[in-house]
Protein: ATP synthase F0 subunit b
Amino acid sequence: MNFLLIYLIILIMIISNNFFLFNEEFLILIAFTSFCFIIYNKLTPLISLRLENKSFFIEKSFVTSLNLIHNILIDKKKNNLKFNNLKFIFISLKKYYSNFSIKFINEFLKYLKFIEKNNLIIKLNYFTVLEKNYKKFITSLLIEKLNKINNSFNFFNSKIKIKKFQTINAVNRLNLIKKI
Structure:
């Protein structure tokens, strides 16, 4: 307000001394200067208050963001520590299960050897009986087949006079003579 009063006094002195000519340009300059002065005096507190509010809001959001980032980093640090602990837990679990599996396999092999010996003896006995029966069956089938073939040769040799069968009969006789 003091500045406004000083401005008015200087303006009145300039006008009263006819120091300036009052033409259009000078009046526009005075109007523009007074407009700028009034705008500066009236809007400066509003603009400064608005800028202070904006800067406070920016500062508050920045601090909030920093706090959130700090909390996230603390959580990540805790998770990393848990992850490192988890790594050691998995390593110990791996050792435990590898030892357990080795012990289990050894005991299981001992059990299987015992069971396998008993089963092997039973299966061997079964297979020997099966082999004997199979030999009997095959030999009986072969004897029967040979008898049929021999009977068919004898029939064709005696009843039907085919040269082929006669020569086979002669060859058989020669073989018998050579063996004797």
